[in-house]
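Worked example 2:
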Amino acid sequence: MMKNSPIKKTFQLNFGPQHPAAHGVLRLILNLDGEQVKHAEPHIGLLHRGTEKLIEYKTFIQSLPYFDRLDYVSMLANEHTYSLALENLFNVSVSVKASLIRIVFLELTRLLNHLISLTTHAIDVGALTPFLWAFEEREKIIEFYERASGARIHANFIRPGGLSQDINDDLLNDIITFNLQFVSRIHELEELLNINRIWTLRLRNIGIVTMQEALTFGLSGPILRGTGLAWDLRKTQPYELYDFIDFKIPTGLNSDCYDRYLIRINEIYESTTIIAQCLDRLATLPSQSDELPDESPFTQVMTDSAKLNSAKRSLIKEGIEELIHHFKTFTEGQTPPPETTYTSTEAPKGEFGVYLVSNENNRPYRCKIKAPGFTHLHALNIITKNHFLADTVTIIGTQDIVFGEVDR
């Protein structure tokens, strides 16, 4: 080699798709200068299942189970957004009781998501113990899923017009007990991580995102709130009964990975207060009795509207005509007026949206899904730039990516 010949310092590294810290089938092509990242190019599509096109070939109700399988850590949050979109199309509202139960399970779902997000992130950085602690608590919440819907993960519990079925007082009492003791488990998690020297060195001043960058790239959820902007759709664009519930929006100061960790911790605390308020209000609702029939707005959990009525009816009492109508409702589905709707909610990872177009058919003409993980991944290059390779793992962990919703 000649004495003055240039030496190429940068080289390419494939990160994933089999890497355990990629949080799914993510392939990153990293251009490195030594251990410093100069460019990060995400390659996705390895899990692609064509969900949106599959939905367009199903009736509106038949498409619901696809949403459980998008972000498979926040199952009910996805199916809830789709249910709200259909309720907008069909111009149907739900009862107070159904809305309160929805909120309880949506916040339990937020706990499910944040427990696995925080603790798998801890594994990426080198701490295994929090993961083991959190999965014990997650198992309790998954049991609530099972008791409410019959399914541990893909619950299919929140339906357009309400819920698939009512829940009993024993389950509500067990959720109250869990909610009271769960806070102490999070205190233990904080004691282990908050001032841990390795944890703080790996997260502080890493992956800083400015407010302008977050808005430019359309980031949402804890990443956006980490910049100090208190943007939460439960407050800014309320749905269900969130505008009647008292809770705070945690925000950050430094916009780094440590801020995003603290925001998720504080969101867990806020979720427990929301659950407690909803359970208190459920206890004050009139209970079902002879004086209050099934059709009472206080006791029903599924709308009696003919537009979206998929509730279980007393077929023996109402006869063969009702049985035929019930069968046609399930097999043929219902046809909404020709309209377009975009419905979004504050899912645990950020803004989750569903865009639906109907054209006087029993199937969606178009369905597009806005997944927060896809948007966050889009910004990975600017967030990781000039960080070390090990910091890339830390940053991906705070993005909270699940590839079911990224690849769709």
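The chain has one domain: 12-407. The beta strands are 10-15, 27-33, 36-43, 158-159, 162-163, 340-347, 350-357, 366-370.
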